[in-house]
Amino acid sequence: MSGKDRLEPGQAERLRQEREKDWRKALRREVSVQTRLTTPRHKMPEQPVEARVGNFLEVNLGYTLELARAEARRCLDCGQPGCVAGCPVAIDIPTFIKLIEAGELDRALEKIHETNGLPAICGRVCPQEVQCEKACNLVQAGKEPVAIGHLERFVADYLCTRESMGPLPGGSRGAEPGKEKVAVIGSGPGGLTAAADLARLGYQVTVFEALHLPGGVLAYGIPEFRLPRTILQSEINFIRALGVEIKTNFIVGKTASLDDLRQAGYAAFFLGTGAGLPSFLNVPGENLLGVFSANEYLTRVNLMKGFRFPEFDTPVPRARRVAVIGGGNVAMDAVRTALRLGASRAIIYYRRSRAEMPARVEEIKHAEEEGIEFNFLTVPVRFLGNERGELRGMVLQRLALGEPDASGRPRPVPIPGSEFEVEVDLAVVAIGQSPNPLLIRQLPLRLGRWGNVEVDYQTMATSLEGIYAGGDAVRGGATVILAMGDGRTAARSIDFYLRKKRG
User: Fold this and answer.
1) Which domain covers residue 80, as residue numbers?
2) How far apart are CA 470 and CA 457, in angstroms?
3) Which of 100, 306, 310, 317 ranks highest by number of CB atoms within 10 Å?
4) pTM of the model
5) Which of 58, 144, 159 is nearest to 104 (CA)?
6) Could you read off the pLDDT of 400-429 as tens digits, one per residue?
7) Do 270 and 289 share a domain, yes or no?
């Protein structure tokens, strides 16, 4: 989907009208363009490295009000803001930033909530550097972009205390009489976004979550030091305040079938079942004790409270020498988690070079600061065990980069005779995952080569009438914000489908 396609119908004109309001003009006059251009980007305060490697507290500490307003003043309030088209959920970025500059924080959060119900999460985990910030017009002027993600996080965090004082701005909705019931399967970012948008449209929305806590990958996949659970819970509370019901410990396809839900009166469905089926290397020794998928390892730590040792006696091995295979954000999460669990050496092994690593720049930076080692152009070809069946080491092979593969990245080619052995107590395989098969294989859905649900990306409609899908169930491993964009598109399409069916 192109940037222009992300703008909603009529949004370009609404952006223009917002920009021409008197208060916006007054703000533009207060600070010269030259001053905005020459003001350096304000750095995010961080927990010191020597402290954070020994705890699971959040690394990024967040802007103060003073820092946030100073950063907001860097925004040029462009006539043609590329940042909005760069956002998968089309947030009115210039308006919320100018509201921060004006000190109108309630209104800033309300503006964000028009299209994004999870701003505190997005401000933390979305790859703004390749989306909205990449499209910032300051970049075209040779400057650092406005810290859009930091500002989004700031305004959401600043008003989190509002929960104890009353409803957050933009919340408190309810189903409209005569509107249909819609079922959302899965409470990850795509499902929560679809649920929030449908609730705003007046539908009776129920989210069915297989686990005991809502949040999907946000709950089990992302460590506390990147996404505190109090923040996740606050965002989920906002979704509930819109009138969304969330049922946990409910496995659609086992607790009840989709047909059972139809019989219960649900008229449309969004499948946000995620990608919880881990990929493995399929090499000898991969079944040894001490070899984990990243999915299992992070779930034990995050969802089963392994990070709160010794308060929770969750079986997470404390290893001295940890190898994590992979180069994405999940690999970064796993290796930084291992370090906090006491590893003396935590090493990333990645089959391509650093330039091809898909992980966020910030995550790589934080990992390097914390002493994580990186070993590029290597891949395990065998895991080695002791007489008790426990992992003791790996045999790796060096690689060279060849011609581009289907992804457009250079294909790693093995170098003959380059094998070498390393000692390892724990290995975490973080090379991707496939969609959860339980529900989608029970339905006559059209599936892709890797078991992903095929959809029309303009509507997120599947091959079955009234059933829509998005996020990792479709993409196999997407970012949080892309999943949210899918949920938002699906909600609009479900609304159109039901209105048309209603006549």
Assistant:
1) 3-164
2) 9
3) 100
4) 0.91
5) 159
6) 999 988 878 889 999 999 999 999 999 999
7) no
